[in-house]
Structures are given as structure tokens and as C-alpha cells.
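Supplementary Note 3. Input sequence used for the single-chain structure prediction.
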Amino acid sequence: MRGGELDRGDDPRRPGPAGARRRLPWALVPLLVAVVPLTTAAQSTRAALPEPSPGSAAATSTPTPTASTPTTTPTTTPTTTPTEAGPTSSDPDPTTADPGPTPDPAPAPAAGSEWTPLIDQGFDTPAALGEFADLYPGWADYDGYHDTTGPGRYDSSRVVTVSDGVLTEDLHSEDGEALVVSITPVPHVQTYGRYEVRFRADVVPGYHFSWLLWPADNDWTDGEIDFPETGLDAGDWIMGFSHQIGPTPSVNQWAQRFEGSPQDWHTAVIEWRPDSLTFTLDGRSRTTTDPLAIPSVPMYWSMQSEAEDPDASTSGGVQIDYVKAWAHTPEAAAG
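The predicted structure, written as C-alpha cells, is reproduced below.
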């Protein structure tokens, strides 16, 4: 519904006529090369900012992104600088019991650096089913909306619990509807920053997650950053994308694939600066300096777990050990 009040039953994040979507089967993802203009099902109708819940720090607006006809070649060849650090672990048996988070491999930025702490959420307050939105105000702002691919509904009250310092999303179906969630860290919006999350997931066929930065003004042509993003079928890769800034945002201006199974614990970091964008997974970094892949507007952080076409009997968990963010303050580093 454009230009008016949003119905909680409508998906406010679906660009294009009649919610048109473009799909890439996850089985094809291993064919991805270092930089390609592909669009996944999880990205094709990215999440614009819905009307925030009362008291939220997010801006209130009605999203009206317009999807242009996708092109097959980015207008600028991205500049990338991959740096690998250490081997990746082998894929675990999905039936093996979760051993719990391993020590955090990502060192915090040093005091006096270009990064100033903004969010440090270790999920130390337990939350039973139905308590998350009350105990973590503003962290479930998408509750009540359909997800961006259509069949799922964001509902933290039936999906999220917190115990032993870990947030768990129980992705499942009830009464024929897939239940999912978008975690919206508070504060939501800033221009440039560092974002870090430690996570793992079960094999949950028919579901995926895309944790992203989306323009606070809901204008898709201002860009979109997705990392980490992965399907939850066995064998899926962990991906990172930045959409082309300009009239064809459906094009991925920069795309990266990382070795490693989503069923392992990983630490993912986005470093978004005015002149570069870096994705880091467990110490392995990839950087682009392509201006068409680096947004320059305030962005909203939304950690969306979503449904594609899951079987009603399918269920499984996504776990988050912590969420951290820093503001970009180069003037502090300059002294």
C-alpha cells in the first residue's frame, strides 16, 4: 500500500509491480565468482523500514522503492582486496548437538581508533517465549509484517527466546504460516559504522537469513548492504552483497562468497567507511572501494530471518551469541 498507512498483513518491503520477485536457487550459489551481478531470492525484495513501533528510535515513513529492470553487467568493475587468515573448519554433521559459542575471534577496535562503541548486546537478560519485545525494546520492530519473500510472518513472540547469553530464533510454521523474525538492534540508524555479530544456524530447509543495512529513507536506489546472508539448506554458503547505487539497485555491484558452513559458529563484521566497504568472516576480509557499492546515506540495521517455501513440518534454530556496533568517528582517531 503506497502513500498511506501500512496494513500489518502487507509486506511493506516488496518493490516492483505486484510484488514481483526474482529468484536464484541456492543450489546455484556455488557457481558464484568473486564479483558478479546476481540476485538471490533473499535479496530480490529487500526490507524497507516499516512503521516503527511506539517509542522506537527509528524514523517513521512508508517505503516506496521502485525496482528497475535488472541489468547483467555493473557499470563499474568493483575493486576488491581479499585477505585470507587461517583455514576454515570442515562442515559439521548437522545432527551433532550444538557445543555452544567458541571464544570470539574478532578483536575489538582499540581505544582511540576510528570506531566509537555504540551497541554491545550480549543477551544477558533471559527472555521466555513472548517476552523478547518487552525485555529488549525496539529490537523487534518488524513484528506483525510479512517477510520480504512473502510466506513468512515476523513474530518475535512465537519465535525468539534468550537463555544462557544466546538469542535463539525457532523458525517453524503454525496454522499453515511460517513464523520468522527480524532483529532490529537499537539504535537502528547511522551513516557509516562497524557491525559485528556471532552466529550459527541449524539446517532448516526452506528458510534463509539476510542481515542487512537498508536506507533509512526507504529509497532502494541509495544502496543496500547484505552480510552475512545464507540459505539454511544443507551445503549453503555464507555470502555478502552490496547492491548498485543508482537506478538499477536489483544489480549486485559487489558480491562475495565465504568458505564455511552456517552450522558452525562464525563472527561476521561489516566495516562501512566513506571510501571503502569490508566484509570479514572469522578473520578473512574482502574489501571494495567501488563508489557504486558504498552507500553514503543513513542506513537501518535489520537482521532478517525469512521463509521461502518451507514444508509445514520443518523447524530449526538460528542462534546469535552477541551483536555489536560502532559509530565511525575518524576525528577521534585524528586526535
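The first strand starts at residue 115 and ends at 121. Confidence is low (pLDDT under 50) at residues 1-99.
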